[in-house]
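Translate sequence into structure tokens.
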Amino acid sequence: MSNSIVMGVDIGGSHITAALVDLDTRKVIQHSWIRKSVDSHEDASRIISSWGEAIKKAFSALEFEITKVGIGMPGPFDYENGICFIKDQDKYESLYGLNIKELLAEALEVNPDKIRLMNDAACFLQGEAFGGAAKGFSKIIGLTLGTGLGSSIYSQNTAVDANFWNLPFKDSIAEDYLSTRWFIKRYRELSGKVVTDVKYLAKLAISDNDALTVFNEFGTNLGAFLNEFIELEKPEAIVLGGNISNAFNLFEKALRSSINTNFQHIPIFQAKLGEEAALIGASSLWYFSSFETVSD
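Result follows.
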């Protein structure tokens, strides 16, 4: 097989997604894509076995032998040594304190040094920087806008979780104003009506002034938050991902108008890789010079 092709893996609270990625083209090899449900409340051996089966199946799509693997994994986690410290999150309790890298390597029948891990929240930005909307920039801020607020910083070829969801913002914390629950709450305050998600609210915004107002207010809030984030990190670019970013056209104008004049030159991109971002981001752990080269 080509030394440029490695496995990218995204592990969530209820699933694993895996696919081969060509690091030369920086794209997912589509017919290798595997998504499998995982019961995160199972015992450790069943979880590791389930992950191993999915990864093996993705490799077998092209009849490749199992080689280098990059994995996006939720924390807390010792990513360098491969030890899980997830606790009291109603998921993966049985993995606490275990060396996941060694256990998964055993399931895959490879050496543990063929597996690398990084924070799953950072994988989104890693992928968008490596082969997506922000390719070519060296310092980037990433936000994932959805049921919660994810934040990450990309610098020196590596993204890390910024963990800014609970920063003080207005009369509460950032996530209370920059997540799905704020949209639902604010629309109910303005209209007296209940909606269940932002996707439906975006459809209403075509003819519903209250819905449009909510998106404008969100854009203003997001701009105020980004002003603080930009001041702190001084990025070259910003990437917005997550389900709420799909309605970017509805809050873009308010967002840009609320960005400080000194920061207006910084481009704001809508993420373009979707689920592929995490896979491409995780696989890119094998690309940069700070890691082994893909030809070793």
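Note: Residues 139 and 155 are 5 Å apart (CA to CA).
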